[in-house]
Amino acid sequence: MNITEKAMLVNLSISQWTARRFDRKATDRVIEDYSAGPDSGRFNKLLVDLAAVKRYQKAANEARVFHYENSLPWGDDDSRILPALNYLPYTKKMRELRSSFEAAVDEFVSEYPDLINRAQRDLNGLFSPGDYPEVGSLRSKFSFSVSVSPVPDSGDFRVSLSADEVEQIKADIEARVKDSVSEAMRDAWNRLFQAVKHMVDKLNNPDSIFRDSLVGNIADLCDVLPRLNLTGDSDLEKMIYEAKMLLASLDPEILRKYDLERKAAADKAENVLSKMSAYMGD
What we know:
Number of strands: 6
Number of helices: 9
Distance between the termini: 26 Å
Structural class: alpha+beta
Number of domains: 2
Helix content: 55-70%
Radius of gyration: 25 Å
C-alpha cells in the first residue's frame, strides 16, 4: 500500500488570549505575609470574568477533542495522519467547530469593554490598565487554522547528492513512514481495546457506577474507526464489527438495573477483549 495515496497529514493550530497575568507585587506581598521562600509561589490574576473566557475555551477544546478523535498520531511533532476516507467528515465538522470558535470570540470581543469595567471593580487594588490589550489588537490574540500536507514520499526526494547518500536518505524516510503508520494503527487498536476493557472492568464490579457513555463511547468508536483504518486491517475490521454488534447496542439503564443482563454483557465484552488481545499480541 502506498500510504501517500491513502492519507494526508493535518495540523490543528488554535491560539487564544489566556486572560491571565502574573502579578509580581501581589506575589511578593503573599510571600512576605507568610514568611515563605522567594520562589514558593506565583500569583496569577484572572483579568476578566471566567465565564466569558470559558465560552471560547470550550469551543477550542471541542475542536481539539474532535481533531484527536478523528485522526491518528504521526511522528514527533503536532501533525496527525488523516485517512482519505475520513477527510470529508473531518473537514465538514471542523468548519462547524471553527465557526463556533469564531462566534465565541466575536461575542467576547464585543463584551470586552464591559468586562474590563467589571474587572476594575472585582480586582480592586489588583487592577492595572496595562494588563489589558487594546480592543483593536485583542482579536490578534485568537486564531484557528487547519493545515493539510502530504505524507513524506521518498520518491519526491531530489536533492543533488551522491547516489549513495540519496538512497540512504530515501531509506530513512521510508523507515520513518513505516514506523509512523505502525504507531498510528496501534493507536486505533488501543482506542477500541481500552474502551472495551473499561466496560469489562465496570460490568464485572457489582458496586461500580457507570454513565451511559460506557456504551456510547464504544458506539462512537465503531462509527469513526472504520474511517481511520489506515492500512485496511481486516482483523481490526472484524473487531469493530463484533464490538458494534455485541456491545454498542447495549442499554446502559438495563445493565444498571438487572444483574443477569449485566453479567451477560460482561461476558460478551470479555470475549471481545480476549480476541483483541490475541490479535494485538497482548
